[in-house]
Structures are given as structure tokens and as C-alpha cells.
Amino acid sequence: MSSMASKIKAYSVPLFLFSLSVFYQLVVLPRSFPASHYDVLGIKRYSSVEEVKEAYDKLSSKWNSEAGIPATSDFIKIQYAYELLTNPLWKRDYDIFGIDEQAHIMDKINLQHAGESISGIDLPLLEATTFDLGFHTFNEFTSQEFAPMFDSSKPWLVLVYSLGSKKCAQFFSSWIDITGLLDGVAGVGILELGELQLAISLAERKPTGKFFFRNGLPSLVAFPSGCKASACLVRFEGDLSTDAVIDWFATKVLGLPRILYYSKESLGQNFLAKSGPHKVKVIFFSKTGARATPFVRQTAKSYWAYTSFAFVLWREEDFSVWWNAFEVESAPAIVFVKDSGVKPVVVHGMVNNSEFLDLVEKNKQQELPQLRSATSMELGCDARGHSRAGNDTISWYCVILAGRLGPELNKLREIMRRIQERLSIDSESSEADKEQPLALTGAFKGKRLTFTWLDGEAQEKYCSYYLHSETSYDTCGPRRDLIDVPKLFIVRYKRNASEDDIKVDTKPKKIFNVFEDEDVDPASQLVARYNGSDEISQIMLWMSEIIRDGDTRNLPFYRSKTPALVPEDSEPIWSRGAQSIFSKSIGIKQRIYNNISRIYDYLGDPRIGPILLLGALMSFGTIWLIRSQSTHPTQASQLSQSNAKVSDDTKSVCM
After folding, report:
1. 121 and 219 co-located in one domain
2. pTM here?
3. pLDDT, tens digit (0-9, with 9 covering 90-100), for 249-285
4. Ranges for the J domain (predicted)?
5. Which of 19, 51, 281, 628 is 20 to 30 Å from 448 at the Cα level?
């Protein structure tokens, strides 16, 4: 018994593999290949419609006699198979892709007519599908039109559908909404299964070679930007609702940021206070609580360096709160919150995409814009760039108010905004030259003068470069005490037109003249600091004198290397790539179901049984060989010991 138990233990692995292969072949594999509707009619798979009708007529001819009447369940199966396989669209979908979306009807009718005669069953069992697209037209792909889709780099969302699918007909109302929401953001198109070659290229393939759509039809397939092959497409596997599809496409495929909703309690603390002081706050008031559209999310991503976006659900009981805060009287509305103390810009009513984009472009800057790494070129306050007036402008000016964030800086920012507002009004008036200094008004009107402010604490090196003095620490860098002294200065930029055409010497530098040839900014810079009072008239007079001197006097042409402005914001999460962000529209249950479905696909592979059997045979042979080799040395040692004993006995007899 002990030797038998040891043998069973030694061969446990091959026995287990052999049992598993038998179980797979006899139990698992047959369930993976259930009887088809062709088997119900007793004909071979993929038979023609005429052969299906002949088989049905042959079976129905037996039902005239009492003995030939089938059971209710058998009749329902036969009738269902006949109706399915005689409809050209249903038969095509079933034969090629295994689509049988009305199979649940058999169970339903069986429950309704259990134990009854087949004469009480209403025929036909299945209803033909009708598509009513109304006046809507869709971009429908064909084999000839599909390839040119990839000529552009924009992403695409493709709906794969069948004219014979009732689910597809019901989904088209949602598809109309999805198409409208993706307008201007991505391309959309539809593909009918009749375009067989294209449909097969977008379908998945089982290990058996069968093409299928995992969740049936309709099926949504996305091509991210730059994707030009089926290997990089993304399939939607969530709930087929407009909100879920749009959120999945915008988040996972386009890599767009989500815009959160805030309440009256959390808006100030979690949004306004945490958004950077350099950003304009864009607040949407919505009555429905719907997500931000992909176009709004695309705009939020494009203007991320300038703006922060938030949504608020409008409630009538909160009217007084929003009216006192932003003068919002109803929803929908969009509010642009700019500088502290500046009246917000409020737009009531619905706006289309182009109008919304114009609003954001117009209001992306604060009234007194902040000088930052993202805005220096656009504002014309960078020695590496050009004036706002154009590349042909030789000299231009930038008035910079530097200081740490606080009451003192806010006070001077308000003064600079008032000066800027006065010049804006006067530049449109024909009497401007009489009311304001001519040089100042002319430079501002000609876009050669820009007003901006600088965060001296965040931009310590840049601030100290222009305000290099014994007291610059009161303005630049982190606070050392309670003293904050904002400083105002003006920078004159000037380019030498003749030097712009000089070619750069690309020869390698020698070790002893590396520092002599250090790169410098192309425009020269001269800085004038203001040390007067806070009177607007005095400041404007000072600026006018600086501009007049800069335009008329032959001042030194001095160039240097300006320290780079430090970026205020870290890299946003969506810039890491669309595939790194997973859409929450696909829940945990759905993900588990998808993983189980993929495992189930491989269980239907008929190669698994033979592989398990081969593994059992190989492990059996290996174990037998090892055991036989360990047995032979033992027998040989026993034989040698017996021979030695006989030899010793022989010697003792001779003695």
C-alpha cells in the first residue's frame, strides 16, 4: 500500500493534467460551442436562405398529425431559427459575427406559453427593425472613404451598427447628441456591417478565428490623434449613454481635464482660493448639472496657462448669494473673475462654441496682465521677442509693477489699471492728444507700450535683475520682515535691424573665450525706475518723458542675458498622454466583467485540451525516467555487495 501511495504522489501532476484535459474536452469545450440555429433545423452551418426554408417546410409538414406536433419549447426554437435565418440582415450578422441580440425572446415566450398548445403562440416571433433618422445626415464610411479619414491628425469616433439591429435603432437618438457634442473637437462617422471588410477590421477575433463584437451592437471604436491602424484603436466597453460615452472619449481618448462642480460653500475655499493669482477664473452656472462638453474641456486645456474653470449648479434659493458675489441673476451664465476689486464679466444665456471661444480669448488676461513665462512674448515684454505692434517695430516699452502679493501691491495694481483704462478711453477719442501726454498716448495706441505686473516673490531672480539695489529685498524674493515695497519701472527694448540679418557663427568656441561669446538677448534693454508719488498724473508724466527720451535720444545700445521667468504651474496631469488617464464611466464591475469575458474567450480554444494532454504525457515520461534512473544504481550497489560477500566466503574456505 505504501508503494502504491508513493507512486500516486509521484505521478500526481500528470494525473491532474490528464484529468483536466478530459474534463475540458467533455465538459468545457462543448459548452463553448452550443448548438446553432442551423442545428435546430437539421442543416449544415451557413446554409442558404432557400435551404433554410426547405428545412423548415420539411419540419412543419409533420405538424399536421397529432404524433408530429413538437413540444412548445422545440417549436419556439424552430420558429425562431427560421425567422432569424430567413432575414438577410439578421442572417449576415449571425453568420459572420455571431450576433443574436433577440435570443432572450425564446425564454420569454417559453414562460408565457409553458404547457400550452403551439396554436396559442402569436407569429411571427420577431419584429423587423426600422430606422428613422429623420432629417439627420451622418458621415457614413465606405471602403473607399475610410482611408482618407487618417489624412488629418484629428481623433475619430466610429459607430459600428447594423440596419437589422433594434438596439442600434434605439441608440441613434443618443448618437445624434454625441455627434453634436463632439462637433469641433473630433471627427465622427458611422459604419454599417454591410461594409464587410471594414467591419471585420474593427471587430475582435477569438482564438478560434471567429470575428465578434464583445458587447454586441452598437459598438463604438475610437481612433486617438495620430492613430492610423487597428492596433492602436480604443473600444468603448461601458454603459451606452450619452454622458458615459462623451466622458470616456473626452477623458481617455482626447486626454481632456474634467471640470468639477462646486457648491456655494466650496467655490471660494476650494476653487477661487486655490487657483493661481495669475489666472482668470471662468465659472459656469448650469441648471441641469450636466458635465462640461468636450469643447469646453478642450478650451480649458488650451487656455490652461491663463484660466481656471469651474461649474456651479444653479439653485433658485442661492440667488442672493450669486447676485451679491458676481451679479448673476439666472442660469445658464458664464462669469469671468479677473483682478481683485475688478467687476466680473458676466454673460447670461446660451452661447455656441465659436462665441464661447471668442469670449475666452477676449477675457483670458487680467485687466492688468501678469508677466509670466507663458505671457512674456505675447505681452511684448521679452528681450528675445518683438513688440505687440509687429516684428518691424524697432523700439517699444514695458511698464512693470513688481512686488509681493499683498495690500500694497493691490493698491498700485489698481492705480495702474486706472492709468491703462484712461489711456484706452483716450486712444479712442479724437481729443486724446489734448488731454494726455502725446508720447504716452501714441505709444499705447500704437501697441508699443504694455502694462503688466510681476510677482516679485515667485520671480526673485528676474525681479532682482531689474531692481538691483540695496533695498531690492523689500520687493523681490521671500518675505524677510513685514515690509513690502512694490516698485514701478519701465524697460525700453530696442532691436538693431542690421544685426538681425547677421548670421550666427557656429564654429566651436575655444576654451579661453567661452565667456566672451556668451549668448545675449537680441534686443537691448534700458531700465528706468520710478521713485515718485502715487499720483496718477505724476506717474503718467514720468512714463511720457521716458518714452520721449527713448524715441528721440541716442541712448546706449546695451544687450545682456535676462534671467528666465520661472513657470508658475506644474505640468498638468492630462499632458502626460491620453492613455494614462482612465475614464470613470467604466466602473469596477464593468472592468471585472470585461476581464472575465476575455478569459472566457480563451476557454473556447479547442487547442487547450490537446495541450493539457501533451503536458500530462510529457510530465509522466519525465517522472518515469527520473524514477527509473534512481532505481538502477540501487540494484547495482546491492549486486556488488553480494559479490563481495561471496568472495570473502571463498577466501575463508581456502584458508
Report:
1. no
2. 0.77
3. 999 999 999 999 999 999 999 999 988 888 999 999 9
4. 36-98
5. 281
